[in-house]
């Protein structure tokens, strides 16, 4: 039984959430079969002479005068009028004012509005309560990994606001329960944050557990208060239970959650968990932020890290593990013994670590994964584009493809330019054709507005566009379309290089997920680099930019510092101090 207090003996803020949920169950009233049977069995009246006369068609001795039609009912209000009335109602005005408070983060004004609404008996909806609960928790650092440190840095006024939000938040939820307003995921998440703000991650975890049992799927944000709370309190075992609950619910952690688990595991010398979490970071995050990189460095520099590891191992099993994993890791645990030599480094264009001399590997992509990704990409495109237009493009691509390279024409023509440049686009087309093993021209994808009007109408550009059309190397996407879907699908389905400086981070590319797409982009994207010497191609690296574990136990962790074009990417290199002499000289340099 879940109570929203730290102990069963505390003041009765509420009953259990499960009891609250039962109050929100809607009951339907149905007609009683007994009443229906009694109605059917009621005695009928005997027909009168008037009834018989009318039945046989005889005229009535007293004909009924014609009745005047009833006056027309007033016209139903329009949808626009109904919406206006809803907005101007006391509930609608309160909703608008609370939404404005939410935008400004103004807890004090929101609480004042709430008190006024209660005194005026204005009914509150689920949205009203959720906004109030959100504001009560938004002033608290309970939902992030640096909770207690942030509280310590807060001003006295901020601390008072945090305390007020905590106190009133529980009171508001109690009133929501009394008003029988059903909670949703946002309600439970705010409740978990309130519990974490009380330094009670156990209660926050119970809230999430009750949320799952009530049939409301938790989100990643729902788990934050409990997970970060346990990590801040130094309770790794309870934090791992939260992680297991996330896995059972199909919720995938992100870097912040994994970094918190990694930190508490390293602090308490949980070497097996550190190893496991480094591989989860490799699989989910690939490249880590500066703060996570510091946690990784602190682990390798610790005494515990120097004590753990195998002195001897079977190289055949290690190689078998690398092959089975697709390359770049073996998963057999810490190899080697002794202290680690840790530092930041860069990787050469050939994929060699400039600190220890290890050559990083390129991790292959399963062709079946590419095929499935192309299908899902086409499905998403046809949901957001005109289906007939995209089907027409697929048929065109089947007739004219495959291509060795696909060019995002708009991005290339505008790269490092104030206006669209056909000259620059032509230079890229010619350059990629020379790099092609088949010398086939690359596919240029342009929106229809780029091939008519403006620079496209000049005689030279008209000839250029016509030559690309004749050779089957130009596709103009229809008006109203998003050409990103077209050039990306072409590159994936043709398994070709993609020339663009687009970082592909907006909402369209977020639809594609975080697992396969970054790996595909890393191995297929060609970017343009501009310098005093002119333009050059930045080809995909011959190695994978992902956490790698070598066959002899070394680790290389890529960070987000540097972009590999204007500045080299920074990596964390960790190798045992007893590395071979040929590599030791590089490490000491």
Describe it for me?
- This protein is of the alpha/beta class.
- Helices cover 52% and strands 8% of the residues.
- The protein is built from 27 helices and ten strands.
- The strands form two sheets. Strands 4-3-2-5-6-7 form a six-stranded mixed β-sheet, with helices on both faces.
- β6 and β7 form a beta hairpin.
- α10 runs antiparallel to α11, α14 runs antiparallel to α15 and α19 packs antiparallel against α20.
Topology at a glance:
Layout: H1 17-23, H2 33-40, H3 49-55, H4 79-88, H5 90-104, H6 107-119, H7 126-138, H8 147-153, H9 156-178, H10 185-197, H11 201-213, H12 220-232, H13 236-248, H14 255-267, H15 271-284, H16 290-300, H17 303-307, H18 315-325, E1 340-345, H19 367-384, H20 387-400, E2 405-408, H21 409-414, H22 422-435, E3 443-447, H23 459-470, E4 474-477, H24 483-494, E5 497-499, H25 507-510, H26 516-524, E6 525-531, E7 534-538, E8 548-549, E9 555-558, E10 571-576, H27 581-588
Parallel strand pairs: 2-3, 2-5, 3-4, 5-6
Antiparallel strand pairs: 1-10, 6-7, 8-9, 9-10
């Amino acid at each position: 039984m879940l109570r929203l207090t730290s102990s069963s003996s505390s003041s009765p803020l509420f009953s259990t959430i499960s009891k609250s949920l039962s109050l929100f169950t809607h009951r339907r009233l149905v007609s009683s079969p007994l009443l229906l049977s009694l109605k059917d069995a009621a005695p009928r009246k005997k027909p009168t002479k008037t009834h018989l006369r009318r039945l046989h068609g005889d005229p009535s001795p007293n004909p009924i005068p014609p009745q005047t039609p009833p006056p027309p009912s007033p016209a139903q209000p329009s949808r626009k009028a109904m919406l206006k009335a809803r907005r101007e109602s006391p509930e609608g005005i309160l909703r608008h004012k609370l939404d404005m408070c939410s935008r400004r983060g103004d807890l004090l004004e929101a609480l004042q509005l709430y008190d006024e609404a209660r005194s005026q008996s204005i009914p509150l909806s689920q949205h009203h309560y959720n906004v109030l609960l959100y504001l009560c928790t938004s002033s608290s650092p309970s939902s992030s990994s640096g909770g207690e440190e942030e509280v310590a840095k807060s001003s006295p006024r901020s601390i008072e606001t945090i305390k007020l939000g905590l106190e009133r938040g529980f009171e508001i939820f109690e009133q929501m329960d009394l008003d029988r307003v059903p909670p949703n995921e946002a309600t439970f998440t705010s409740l978990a944050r309130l519990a974490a703000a009380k330094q009670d991650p156990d209660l926050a975890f119970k809230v999430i557990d009750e949320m799952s049992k009530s049939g409301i799927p938790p989100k990643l944000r729902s788990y934050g208060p409990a997970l970060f709370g346990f990590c801040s309190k130094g309770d790794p075992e309870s934090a791992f239970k939260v992680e297991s609950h996330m896995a059972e619910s199909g919720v995938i952690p992100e870097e912040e959650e994994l970094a918190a688990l990694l930190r508490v595991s390293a602090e308490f010398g949980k070497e097996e968990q550190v190893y496991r979490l480094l591989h989860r970071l490799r699989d989910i995050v690939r490249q880590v932020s500066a703060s996570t990189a510091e946690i990784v460095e602190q682990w390798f520099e610790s005494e515990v890290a120097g004590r753990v590891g195998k002195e001897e191992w079977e190289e055949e099993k290690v190689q078998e593990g690398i092959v089975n994993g697709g390359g770049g890791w073996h998963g057999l645990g810490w190899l080697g013994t002794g202290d680690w030599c840790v530092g930041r480094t860069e990787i050469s264009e050939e994929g060699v670590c400039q600190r220890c001399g290890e050559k990083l590997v390129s991790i292959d992509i399963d062709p079946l994964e590419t095929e499935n990704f192309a299908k899902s990409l086409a499905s998403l495109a046809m949901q957001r584009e005109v289906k007939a237009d995209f089907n027409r493009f697929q048929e065109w691509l089947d007739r004219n493809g495959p291509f060795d390279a696909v060019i995002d024409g708009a991005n290339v023509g505008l790269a490092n330019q104030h206006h669209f440049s056909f000259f620059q686009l032509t230079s890229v087309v010619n350059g990629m054709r020379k790099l092609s093993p088949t010398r086939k021209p690359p596919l240029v994808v342009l929106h229809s507005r780029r091939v008519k009007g403006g620079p496209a109408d000049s005689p030279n550009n008209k000839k250029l566009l016509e030559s690309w059309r004749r050779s089957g190397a130009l596709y103009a996407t229809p008006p109203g379309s998003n050409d990103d879907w077209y050039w990306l699908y072409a590159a994936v389905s043709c398994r070709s290089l993609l020339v663009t400086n687009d970082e592909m981070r907006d909402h369209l590319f977020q639809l594609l997920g975080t697992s396969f797409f970054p790996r595909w982009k890393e191995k297929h994207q060609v970017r343009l680099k501009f310098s005093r010497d002119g333009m050059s191609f930045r080809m995909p690296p011959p190695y994978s930019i992902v956490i790698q574990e070598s066959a002899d136990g070394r680790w290389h962790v890529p960070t987000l510092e540097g972009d590999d074009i204007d500045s080299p990417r920074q990596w964390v290199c960790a190798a045992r101090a007893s590395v071979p002499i040929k590599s030791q000289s590089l490490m000491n340099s």
